[in-house]
Specification:
The relative contact order is 0.13. The protein is globular. Helices cover 39% and strands 17% of the residues. The protein has a domain at 3-170 and 200-235 and 289-311: NAD(P)-binding Rossmann-like Domain (Rossmann fold, 3-Layer(aba) Sandwich), CATH 3.40.50. The protein is an alpha/beta fold. The protein has 13 helices and 13 strands. InterPro entries: Epimerase_deHydtase, NAD(P)-bd_dom_sf, NAD(P)-dependent_oxidoreduct. One of its GO terms (cellular component) is cytoplasm. Residues 9-221 form the NAD-dependent epimerase/dehydratase domain. GO terms for molecular function: aldehyde dehydrogenase (NAD+) activity.
Length: 344
Amino acid sequence: MTASARRIALVLGASGGIGGAMARRLRDAGWTVRALKRGLASESEQRDGLLWLRGDALDAMDVQRAAQGCEVIVHAVNPPGYRRWSEWVLPMLDNTLAAARARGATVVLPGTVYNYGPDALPHPGEDAPQRPVTRKGAIRVEMERRLRQGAERGEFRAIVLRAGDFFGPDAANNWFSQGLVTPGKPVTRIQQPGRDGVGHQWAYLPDVAAAMAALIERRERLPAFARFHFAGHWDADGRQMAEAIRRVVRARSGVAPRIGRFPWWAVRLGAPVVPLFRELAEMRYLWRKPLRMDGARLAAELVRDGGVPHTPLDAAVERTLESLGCLPVGESTGAGADARRAFS
């Protein structure tokens, strides 16, 4: 494919976990990938095979300029941490939708389970009613409503892929790296957020990105507003993720970490004054009751493309811990190497 024929995608949030995974996946599939970044020293710079442009997702003109000539816009940008969601999330999305509307581009949104309230548990389908009980969930519902409205009007196409809690290389703002383990430190203790016996859904970022990229290639054959669920890794008893971390650490260091409880009491105490703790407390119902999304619709769509990408759990955990700096330097157990080959 010549440089002039290369397809162009804009990834908003390429500095983050899922945005970064998507940018790399599209780059490796032959796309020209643009990424918007605040505070860049120059107007643009080529790095890691991506074209980084100085700009802000909150600035409509920055997004419009970056989206020129783009067929796809991946909207994976979020406010840092859990701060200022109510102020920033919808204006950022509106800027993306305006740019997509002007160019007839496809908008791709990494979705979450936050759309669903307790009434939808334990097995919500893609089209299940969305009655969230949290502020963040309500914003997520509104994001999808605006996507659907624009797609049904023929202004752009939209793809939503909902997944469980993310984990994976270069992903820092998630339950794996902020709850179960501590980045940059050897794993001596694993904090389990959920109750024993309560299942939980996890999503390995390279797998999610690969599935999204496959949907992007099929975008013209999908409904104008297409929603899918990503099954990922189902932790049936709430302990399998912690046990996988323990196995990987023991194989690399010879020491098996203890598995303890996440300190929800500290979250409750800090919730009145710490915005992050308040958001975590609101989402606790997802650790008290199981929520498992069925990936049958996605599997049926990707059956001719080799199926839904799925890295074995121990391989995914090892690669994640390596990226977080939680494992001693040395030989891989082999699982992580297998995972790297699968996505090379």
